[in-house]
Amino acid sequence: MNFIGNQPIANFLQLSFKNGTFSHAYCLIGPSQIGKRTLANQLAAQILEIEVKALNTNPDYVYVERLEDEKTGKKKKEISADQIRQVREKFYNSSWLNGYKVIVLDEAELLNEESANGFLKILEEPPAKSIIFILTENDNLLLPTIRSRCQCLELSAVSDASMSEFLKSLDCHDNQAQEIIKLSWGRPGKALELLSDSEKYSQNFDEQRRFEKIIKSPIYERWSLMEDVLSEKGGLIKTKEKLEPILESWIMFWRDLMINDLKNSKKYQQNIDQTTKTKNLLSANVNSKLAIEQLLTNIY
DSSP character for 54? Predict the structure, then answer.
């Protein structure tokens, strides 16, 4: 299996299937781009005895994700009950090849109450020879009854050494590899994105420079460093959309600083907490400019 990092988990799952001790449902937990979907799909391909690239055309493979809103072109906020009803109908049909059937449910924390209860019924009464992979960034947002019916496995950040080997295999030169490792926070998917998209790489690099300037600047200068985001044309909604990935990157930058300066870990943790609180406030539709103003005043 060609999987980067979290090899003990990958090996455990492979061995479980080989030995016939596979659970009927697994919950893979970890931040975005850590490799949850990659691992689930590689295992699904192994279970169905096909290539990963053939999964989407295989009738015994069901992938569930948020649908796109036809009006906005963006993904919807939730996974709907209608989607789960369609999954249930497809999943309970007989296997086309008389083998296993596999569900991969992505962003499971975005099930709403009705769709979560619908999916729970699938977990409670799965068809014979079926395996379910639930992917989530936060298993605490799942129904406890869903979580209790899965074997939960948490994927952690990939080591710099493993990331370096991974990037080396993609012919990434050393200097760029070190910058990508610094900006990808142990997430192979993020590293691939930065390597393949020069615009995303520049944006992330510039964001790191902005962060470094902000933490070194007095409070009265910090606002001007965020002015390009806070004066975004398109209103508060667009501003919030732009702020969320910025704040996520700040959290990771704080964590890097904390790892390299443990004697000041309390200060960094307080800054992480403040930034996380602001990110959550934005999700709750609090005025973005006021939330950022408070954050810029409180971090130190």
Answer: G
Cβ partners under 8 Å of residue 15, min gap 6: none
Q: Which two tokens stand for residue 232?
A: 């975004």
Please, are residues 178 and 191 in contact by the beta-carbon 8 Å criterion?
no
Quote the pLDDT of residue 230: 75
Assess contact for 49 and 79: CB atoms under 8 A: no
Is 195 within 8 Å of 167 (Cβ atoms)?
A: yes
**pLDDT reported for residue 238:** 62
Residue 94: the pLDDT is 75
170 neighbors 156 (Cβ within 8 angstroms): no
Query: The tokens of 30 are what?
Result: 């970890």
pLDDT higher than threshold 90 for residue 77:
no
Q: Which residue has the tokens 């959309």?
A: 241
Q: What is the DSSP string of 276-296?
A: HHHHHHHHTT--HHHHHHHHH
For residue 131, the cross-strand partners are 102
**Residue 119 and residue 111 in contact, taking contact as beta carbons nearer than 8 Å:** yes
Using the predicted structure, report yes or no on whether residue 27 has a pLDDT greater than 70: yes
Q: In the predicted model, what is the mean pLDDT of residues 229-237?
A: 60
Contact 210, 199 (CB under 8 A): no
Would you say residue 124 has pLDDT above 70? yes
Q: Is the dihedral of CA 157, 145, 273, 78 positive or negative?
A: positive
At 247, which amino acid appears? L
3-class SS of residue 70: coil
Rounded distance between C-alpha atoms, residue 24 and residue 131, angstroms = 5
Reported confidence tier of residue 167, pLDDT bands at 50, 70, 90: very high
Q: How far apart are CA 160 and CA 5, in angstroms?
A: 10
* More confident site: 260 or 28: 28
